């Protein structure tokens, strides 16, 4: 009998990943708090699309409302629980599934930001895995409809990186990597924390900036002011990660040290990073916008405290200030509260 899999948070990444696992024939239950989304999936299936016709799929799925999870007390326990909610919802989502885990069941954080410690505080480190989704860029643009806005990674870019917190390769980490291969390329990493911080660097450069300015990914990178600000954010995040002792990975073609030097004003590094970013912009859809920009447009709470705010907080803890992140975090919160309108003008002074 196959493993019982649940995905808590069937939004862009959870829906995309869980939908493809279901398409591959795995026993997957999608759990979400948006009633219309769940009802559409029940009636019509989950509709996945991408940049090519071959990526379009209509997938019959098991979809549950959050209040239906108690049904699991009379069903098979959960072998693998993917947590795919926003970072601020991590604790309650983990508590939701904890009572229904099999004795050897475990929880996988498939999220932005760094949430393994929050999950482990609830289920224990022995039941906690991490998974980085590198360059998926998807959006839940209507109930039951998830669209990917960047090309498939395939063998040219390893999308899913699954890791144990202790860094060893285990059977269950390989199991999760194998499951996610239904959606795109995947691997087991022995550098979970370095992978996590590297992904955070990219998110901290782009997410808050697009959320505050209202610019999509391509427009953000095309403007000189927002592009240079993104590099400053990237440089600070790299320096904090290096000081914290993380082994940073290459990020979307950018070497960490080169990115840091570019954001610090070194001309040779700036030329190199500019070329990489411009080339990357050619491959993504004009519809692509980071998750926090999607949240802002939908009137939802953003993850700014867990991205720019987290970099600033961690930097303060270890004595490597990240003032640009602190200011970016505050600007995003002001836009979120309605004190400022989303516009490129809001970054003046950041």
Give a description of the structure.
There is one protein chain. With 350 residues, the chain is of the alpha/beta class. It folds into two domains: 4-190, Rossmann fold (3-Layer(aba) Sandwich), CATH 3.40.50.720; 195-347, N-(1-d-carboxylethyl)-l-norvaline Dehydrogenase, domain 2 (Orthogonal Bundle). 44% of the residues lie in helices and 17% in strands. It has 13 helices and twelve strands. The strands form two sheets. The chain has an eight-stranded mixed sheet with strand order 5-2-1-6-7-8-11-12, with helices on both faces. The protein has a four-stranded mixed sheet with strand order 4-3-10-9. Helix 4 links the parallel strand 7 and strand 8. The termini are far apart. The model has no long low-confidence stretch (mean pLDDT 95).
